[in-house]
Design goal:
Elements lengths: L3 H21 L3 H15 L4 H18 L9 H13 L4 H20 L26 H8 L10 H14 L3 H5 L6 E2 L4 E5 L5 E5 L2 H21 L17 H14 L8 H14 L4 H8 L4 H4 L1 H17 L5
Antiparallel strand pairs: 1-2, 2-3
Helix pairs in contact: 2-3, 3-5, 4-5, 7-9, 7-11, 11-14
């Protein structure tokens, strides 16, 4: 036994040295990426954005290798994009990778590591401007009127999900984050936690109020049967909080059963909210506030959608358009 102790002690002592050696092998770019992602987490950036940037920047660091920042110019960045195309990545994926590299360089400039951003000199791949197909008001009404279809596993909850997504224009991630205490019935508003943990109040109407009145007793019953307790507003039959994936699956299944396109997902209902509000004359700033958009330019996409609808109506109805 005594003979083994020094050996174990030596091995334990050797491990930190080994890990330090592994650390020193990391390139300048890899170390910078680690620090940049750490900063993003500290600034409460979206987990999805952090995950996407981590993947894109890992590929970028591997491509750049042991080069110093001074040795990286816009031609290297272009070479990186060509490398991505060769790997079979789509234009959208390449554009996202370029955005990640630009963000990294902006942070490096703030930290005083670099003076220029070579990624800013590289053009973003031109993406086809595809506007989402938004269900019409009539399609949404037929979807929400009447009973939930047989495929609805928890009809009271599923109706409320549709009413919240379309009636409040919230994101899927915001929907599953709603707690029971976030509902302000007297004020007819819900506290929503958006991107970067920014909070906003979103109003709701009679349809949401009615759906809540039917769902809340059913929720209480489900919790009693599962012998669980949770702060979450939307739960599954086992008493657990819903996930974004399960919401997407439920929305698609019910939408298809109700005769809508299989392309319908939670974000489609958010688009429908913005478009229909604008078509009914809502102020763009008010829509921006309700959707939780940081920039008005993001909200202005709905002007395009609305204009498309107006042109269709004009072509179909104006006697001089035919």
């Amino acid at each position: 036994m005594k003979n083994q102790s020094p050996q174990r002690h030596t091995e334990a002592k050797g491990n930190p040295t080994h890990s330090m050696a592994a650390e020193t092998k990391r390139t300048m770019v890899e170390k910078a990426v680690d620090q940049f992602l750490r900063t993003m987490r500290q600034r409460n950036a979206s987990p999805h954005t952090i995950k996407a940037y981590a993947g894109d920047l890992e590929v970028f660091a591997a491509y750049i290798g042991s080069r110093h920042w001074r040795g990286i110019d816009h031609l290297n960045i272009r070479g990186f994009l060509s490398h991505l195309y060769e790997k079979g990545l789509s234009k959208a994926s390449v554009a996202r990778s370029l955005a990640a590299v630009r963000s990294l360089y902006r942070w490096l400039a703030q930290e005083g590591v670099v003076e220029q951003n070579p990624a800013a000199l590289v053009s973003t791949p031109k993406l086809p401007k595809k506007l989402p197909r938004v269900p019409t008001v009539e399609e949404m009404n037929s979807m929400l009127d009447g009973q939930m279809p047989e495929v609805a596993a928890f009809p009271e909850r599923d109706r409320l999900m549709f009413e919240l997504l379309y009636g409040c224009g919230i994101r899927n991630s915001e929907l599953i984050g709603i707690n029971l205490d976030d509902i302000r019935l007297s004020a007819e508003a819900i506290l929503i936690r958006g991107k970067g943990k920014k909070e906003r109040y979103v109003p709701f109407g009679d349809a949401v109020r009615a759906a809540l009145a039917v769902y809340l007793p059913a929720r209480q019953q489900a919790l009693a049967l599962s012998k669980k307790n949770t702060a979450a507003l939307l739960i599954n039959r086992r008493g657990g909080r819903l996930t974004t994936r399960s919401v997407g699956r439920i929305i698609k299944k019910i939408a298809v059963a109700k005769g809508l396109s299989p392309d319908v997902h939670p974000h489609t209902l958010r688009h429908a909210f913005g478009t229909h509000m604008l078509e009914e004359g809502a102020d763009l700033r008010a829509i921006q506030e309700m959707l939780g958009h940081e920039r008005l330019s993001t909200t202005q996409r709905y002007t395009q959608l609305s204009m498309k609808h107006v042109l269709q109506v004009y072509d179909q109805t104006h006697p001089r358009a035919k």
